[in-house]
Amino acid sequence: MDVRAELVVLLCLMGLTCAVPVKFISCGSPSGKVTVVDISPCATQPCQLHKGEAYSVNVTFSSDVVSQTSTALVHGIIAGVPIPFPIPVQDGCKSGIQCPIQKQQNYHYLNSLPVKKEYPAVSTCDIWGD
Predict the structure, then answer these.
(1) How are strands ordered across the β-sheet holding 81-85?
(2) Least packed by Cβ within 10 Å: which of 56, 69, 83, 105?
């Protein structure tokens, strides 16, 4: 059985152009710590994502547990309810993370996330990993 490494990042979204570290609120996780979130293009804070565009996301984190797998999830918050948004590659082991995940090591989750025109407008977004 795999140990789940839960990483939760609450991102406030609004902006445009180069990657700068995004100010984020960590919801806390007993199995790891997010240290940096980069979104590109995003020149200002808070970062605004536009429908019909794709954004590069780099989440740097350290793990407090060993895990054989890594799964990324994205949720938009609509009326206080997290609604899942599909992402192209959910397998973190195929998105820059060398699996198995080891304790006390840093990892970079890298992915290109499309913001589809059919997505509803949201003011905040959660990126989850396990």
Answers:
(1) 24-26, 7-12, 124-129, 72-78, 81-85
(2) 105
